[in-house]
Amino acid sequence: DNTTPIARIAATRLDDAALPVRLYYSQKVFRSVSGDHGHKGEFLQVGAELIGSDGLQADVDILSAAFEALKNAGATGFRVEIGHAEIYKALIETLGVDDMTAETIRRLIENKSFAALGDILAPYSAKPEAKALYAMPQLFGGIEVLDEVEMLTGNVRVLGAVAYLRRLYAALDSAGFGGAVMLDLGLVHEMDYYTGIIFRGYIGGAGGAILAGGRYNALCAKFGRDLPAGGFGIDVESMAENLSDQQTPAQTRDSVRIALTKGRLEKKTLALLKSSGYDISELEAGSRKLIFTLPDTNIEIVLAKAADVITYVEHGVCDMGVVGKDTIMEKGGSFYEMVDLGFGKCRFALATKKGKEVYSGYKTPVIATKYPAVTRNFFARRNMDVETIKIEGSVELAPLLDLADAIVDIVETGSTLRENGLEVIEDVAPVSARVIVNLASAKMKKAAIEKVIADLEAGLEK
Ligand code: PRP
Fold it and tell me: What's the CA-to-centroid distance between 393 and ligand 1, angstroms?
């Protein structure tokens, strides 16, 4: 992270500099990356910070610098989405939940996971804050989202942030950046040092944000000097790779490309596309083809294995995907999880041989599974240490052969367990098919993606 060390330098080594201080940097950032997700562990970031200055004009200056940076680098058709840290903070504090629940809610808003967000907020549904928190991830687009949030809540801190965003939007519009600004009230940052506006920038072809920033008025004070501050950083390599004059035709495509999971979910997903009004006759014809264009639409369909659906969507080579919650829970990643399609229903369960005690004795339980991440997370939530063994298929064999004390696996009808003398000890999580959307596509192709989602939701009703 570059922001925290800059706040430290501003508060300590530059303590006699005249305010405001304008700083820029160009240096490598290192991130811990796990697995083969194709994310960079090291990249060059260029950024600018305005320290010692607060208020509308300061925010306009910071954002204008960000817009100019993108423009001068040759980016065309970029979008910068702006949110406000106060909105989530005010709502969650008024809702009054413990820190762990608050963080789960924050993460679900960030991922636009409507289904899970609805579940976790259900016990608080009588409170207006719960309704507003549930709506947050849907509130992205033009100035109209501010009208919507004003109708949802009377929370004064939220209304203050909304009024501020309205003034900021107008100021950016008159500075000539109106067309590139979007509002996303569901923008909730993992870094809790943000106190005011938060923003991210997108360009076509890059699967994620290439620019990120915001206001962090309380950070310098932690290093001994109370200074308002704000700024942004640009991922130089992602930006350079995706500048319009360097893009391949594949990167500049304007189609909506949807990745569907082959196998288990395939039949039901195709049936849904059909009832949603799409002509899928070429897909039904049964060929070895992997990419199809739906007639009379700008939609391409890609057929892939479940985990690959996530990979293609995360990297933005597909804009959307249909994939099981089981794969989402196991693989994780950055994307929006926008619709629970309700089919492909099954559950993760902990199971073992009938009558066997899994938790007895001093031995660490051995759990066999195709889903080691789901298993580790389940037991970690219980503060329990288990040993996991990865099995590739027919996991039920492991306890039968005495390799493991129990399994964590998908249970659909329960007949595999029954026919092998096993039983469920505990349910772990429900599973069903979800629609996932690439972070940048959700902003850059908002209308087209919303149309597909609306069609699918109408198809589900039929
Ligand atoms: C899944 C799962 C169970 C079975 C559960 O396996 O791993 O074995 O289905 O379904 P049921 O409750 O309806 O019996 P899958 O068919 O995907 O095969 P695999 O284990 O060989 O990968």
Answer: 8
Query: Which atom of ligand 1 is found nearest the CA of 410?
Result: 2
What average pLDDT does this structure show over 371-396? 93
Can you tell me which residue has the tokens 């954002």? Answer: 63
How many Å apart are CA 136 and CA 186, to the nearest integer?
A: 5
Atom of ligand 1 nearest to the CA of 392: 22
Rounded average pLDDT over 336-358: 94
The 10 Å CB-count burial string (b at 16+, else e) for 368-384 is: bbbbbebbbebbeeeee
Residue of 258, 199, 196, 234 whose CA lies nearest to 53: 196
**pLDDT tier at 193, thresholds 50, 70, 90:** confident
CA distance 134 to 156: 18
Q: Which residue, chain included where needed, has tokens 């066997």?
A: 356
Expressed in angstroms and rounded, the spacing between residue 7 Cα and the centre of ligand 1 is 53
Let me know if 147 is exposed, middle or buried by CB neighbors in 10 A (0-12, 13-18, 19+): exposed
pTM of the model: 0.84
**Cβ-based neighbour number of residue 196 at 10 Å:** 21
* Ligand 1 lined by 407 (C-beta under 6 Å): no
User: Residue 419 has what pLDDT?
Assistant: 96
- Residue 411 near ligand 1, beta carbon < 6 Å: yes
